[in-house]
Design a protein that fits this description.
By secondary structure, the protein is mostly beta strands. The chain folds into 2 domains: 40 residues, Single Sheet (N-terminal domain of TfIIb), CATH 2.20.25.10; 54 residues, SH3 type barrels (Roll), CATH 2.30.30. 7% of the residues lie in helices and 28% in strands. It has 1 helix and 11 strands. A hairpin with a 6-residue loop joins strand 8 and strand 9. The longest helix has 8 residues. InterPro entries: YjdM, YjdM_C, YjdM_N. This is Protein YjdM. Pfam families: YjdM, Zn_Ribbon_YjdM. Belongs to the YjdM family.
Length: 114
């Protein structure tokens, strides 16, 4: 009986060892079992607001600093409420729609959770 873990992509039980890697014959996914724990922690990136509160998709936040809107002469004022945020990868880690401004990306360091 095999003690190898199932494939993390397709959950196939038919994994096999190829040197230091594990291989799934069904989806051709290869992974290193030693660094598997490190990869999972990187995939689950934690985004925090200016006060250190963890942000999740669907949260509502408030802008804590006047922000210049790139490509526009207007300014996003302090205290502006943003509803139903979506977390994304990248430098600007919040994707949202703001009433009066439209779709926008924000940095989590300039917002606080409501």
């Amino acid at each position: 009986m095999s003690t190898l873990p199932n494939c993390p992509k397709c959950n196939s039980e038919y994994t096999y060892e190829d040197g230091s890697l594990l291989v799934c014959p069904e989806c051709a996914h290869e992974w290193n079992p030693e660094s598997d724990a490190n990869n999972n922690s990187e995939d689950n990136k934690v985004v925090k607001d200016a006060n250190g509160n963890v942000l999740n998709d669907g949260d509502s936040v408030t802008v804590i600093k006047d922000l210049k809107v790139k490509g526009s002469s207007s300014v996003l004022k302090i205290g502006t409420k943003v509803k139903n945020i979506r977390l994304v990868d990248g430098d600007h880690d919040i994707d949202c729609k703001i009433d009066g401004f439209g779709a926008m990306k924000l940095k989590s360091e300039f917002v606080k959770k409501i």
